[in-house]
Design the sequence.
């Protein structure tokens, strides 16, 4: 296997608020290989967006990266001088955000904003920049790109705006594209188009993609590998098929159970996860998921599990794991 | 593209059927402003004022400095449209040149105010922290000192030239602009497109000039428009006290002061500059109001 393009090692990002220290990301480690598609899933406030922002060192006060390393091609972003991080942003690692309308400057033409993304890192003439902007708009399948570069964001539809954002992201041919909830603000039909576009671009440009979402379905549509986050930690990771077919952490299992399915019996109730995400100023003792876990055992209350291999390439942080839980359930029923 | 012009390709149907009128924000604002009668009349009055000021630089009915071009305290007549003053000078001519002074003071101070206030406000609002602390303290100190006192001291120190008076007024008037821009920047820096610009490696100077400033321009223009009449009034006030522009350059304030002792026998000497001043101030204020409504992005139609 090739060397990872990005290695995150024991990342901790904390927010120093008046109420206490919020441990938004609490010891996250993962590798990203060139051209790979990695999904990070979890509910709101689990730390997935903060992880993404930390990678580009965009976490704002009172937030701070307090521990760990983020190695981009071997150099640590955490300890880099500001100017060097700025060179990486948009050039080597690009990021697109949830709401494409608010991510585009309303008073500047779309074409100009794409050109600006290029000019931040390379000296090019206006003419070259313009033709490259048109080419990028074509690459993200925007029709009549030649005239569309002259439009303002409000003249674009939601899907086109996100396409334009992706074009901006790809402007400098980055090796990593971080997409933070790229489809959440869009219509369902447009969501599918954007996912398809990201998948095609991943094939065409070999850009590695980190997709951040709360939607398991979106992950299934794009990613090869997935990290499931809960309360600032990774609770399960592995290849997408594996995670979908054989989830080992009760949290992952519950997330999957909460997706409505057409092929399920109508009478089956959708499973929701009881309770609220934990307070990250004072996280629960033991396993952080135990207050909401239906399979918890005595050990979960005081002993914090770390990621353990549960299959080929698959790891989960759980004392019980679904395999054993379901087996016991079967025994109980028998 | 291979398809015939005017025929949409199947791709173009996919969710992208927005009307494609080429309307920029400014065209929209101009359209809204035109619907506002008061603002339109005000614009017309101000344009007239500008024309008068320009003409007065080359021609006036009578030379403004020459005394006894007519009898003293003469009421308006065909020969002297707005009468003459206590020294027999033609008031109409002096009023024309006074427009020049007022406009120079009004616009001049706002240029300085804008340059200073925008720079300071952007820096404080964007970088926050200790820089904002220092700047905010300075702003508060300036608010604390009476503006008349500051202006008087500056005029005494620098002298009474028009440029010096413009500078003195600007020094007492920049804080509102700085505060406004600081607040706007505070709000705009949290917007996602600024974060997106940061995420794509854009430098702070470019984020400020290309992303934050253009989005704050509407309120800045409105603030500057309201600032013009304030500055004009302040100059008139200083001139009325005899601390404004050096005589014999006519300022509306000085003209009103000249006629003050003869209010009973020749009220036109006071009334003419006073009315001109009021009309100008009103026009600027109505225009400011109109601009505020026109540049408000929440207002559609």
Sequence:
């Amino acid at each position: 296997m090739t060397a990872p393009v990005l290695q995150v090692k024991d990342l901790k990002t904390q927010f120093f608020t008046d109420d206490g220290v919020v441990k938004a990301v609490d010891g996250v480690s993962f590798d990203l290989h060139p051209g790979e598609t990695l999904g990070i899933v979890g509910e709101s406030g689990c730390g997935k967006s903060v992880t993404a922002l930390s990678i580009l060192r965009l976490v704002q006060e009172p937030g701070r990266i307090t521990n760990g390393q983020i190695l981009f091609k071997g150099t640590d972003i955490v300890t880099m001088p500001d100017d060097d991080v700025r060179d990486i942003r948009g050039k080597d690692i690009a990021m697109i955000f949830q709401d494409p309308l608010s991510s585009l400057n309303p008073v500047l033409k779309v074409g100009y904003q794409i050109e600006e993304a290029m000019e931040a890192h390379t000296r090019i003439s206006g003419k070259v920049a313009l033709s490259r902007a048109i080419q990028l708009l074509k690459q993200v399948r925007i029709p009549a790109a030649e005239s569309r570069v002259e439009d303002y964001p409000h003249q674009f539809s939601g899907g086109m705006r996100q396409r334009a954002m992706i074009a901006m992201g790809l402007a400098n041919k980055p090796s990593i594209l971080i997409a933070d909830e790229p489809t959440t603000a869009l219509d369902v039909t447009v969501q599918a188009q954007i996912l398809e576009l990201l998948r095609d671009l991943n094939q065409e440009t070999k850009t590695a993609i980190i997709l951040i979402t709360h939607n398991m379905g979106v992950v299934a549509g794009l990613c090869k590998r997935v990290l499931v986050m809960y309360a600032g930690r990774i609770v399960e990771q592995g290849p997408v098929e594996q995670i979908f077919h054989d989830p080992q952490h009760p949290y992952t299992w519950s997330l999957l159970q909460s997706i409505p399915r057409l092929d399920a019996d109508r009478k089956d109730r959708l499973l929701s996860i009881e309770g609220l995400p934990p307070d990250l100023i004072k996280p629960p003792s033991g396993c952080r998921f135990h207050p909401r876990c239906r399979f918890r055992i005595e050990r979960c209350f005081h002993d914090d599990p770390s990621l353990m291999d549960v299959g080929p390439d698959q790891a989960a942080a759980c004392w019980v794991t679904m395999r054993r839980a379901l087996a016991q359930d079967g025994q109980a029923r028998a | 593209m291979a398809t015939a012009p005017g025929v949409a390709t199947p791709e173009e149907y996919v969710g992208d059927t927005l009307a494609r009128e080429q309307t920029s924000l400014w065209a929209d604002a101009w359209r809204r402003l035109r619907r506002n009668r008061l603002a339109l009349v005000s614009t017309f009055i101000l344009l007239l004022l500008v024309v008068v000021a320009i003409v007065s630089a080359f021609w006036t009915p009578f030379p403004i400095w020459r005394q006894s071009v007519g009898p003293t305290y003469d009421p308006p007549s065909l020969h002297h449209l707005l009468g003459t003053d206590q020294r027999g000078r033609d008031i109409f001519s002096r009023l024309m040149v006074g427009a020049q002074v007022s406009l120079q003071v009004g616009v001049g101070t706002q240029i300085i105010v804008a340059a200073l206030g925008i720079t300071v406000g952007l820096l404080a609002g964007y970088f926050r922290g200790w820089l904002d602390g220092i700047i905010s303290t300075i702003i508060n100190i300036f608010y604390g000192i009476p503006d008349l006192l500051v202006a008087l001291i500056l005029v005494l120190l620098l002298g009474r030239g028009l440029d010096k008076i413009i500078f003195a007024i600007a020094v007492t008037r920049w804080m509102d602009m700085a505060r406004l821009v600081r607040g706007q920047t505070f709000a705009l820096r949290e917007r996602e497109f600024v974060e997106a610009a940061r995420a794509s490696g854009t430098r702070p100077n470019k984020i400020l000039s290309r992303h934050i400033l253009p989005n704050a321009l509407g309120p800045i223009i409105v603030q500057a428009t309201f600032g013009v009449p304030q500055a004009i009034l302040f100059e008139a006030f200083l001139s009325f006290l005899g601390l404004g522009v050096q005589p014999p350059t006519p300022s509306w304030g000085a003209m009103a002061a000249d006629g003050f002792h003869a209010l009973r026998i020749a009220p036109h000497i006071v009334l003419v500059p006073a009315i001109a001043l009021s009309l100008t101030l009103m026009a600027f204020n109505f225009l400011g109001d109109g601009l505020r409504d026109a540049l408000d992005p929440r207002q559609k139609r």
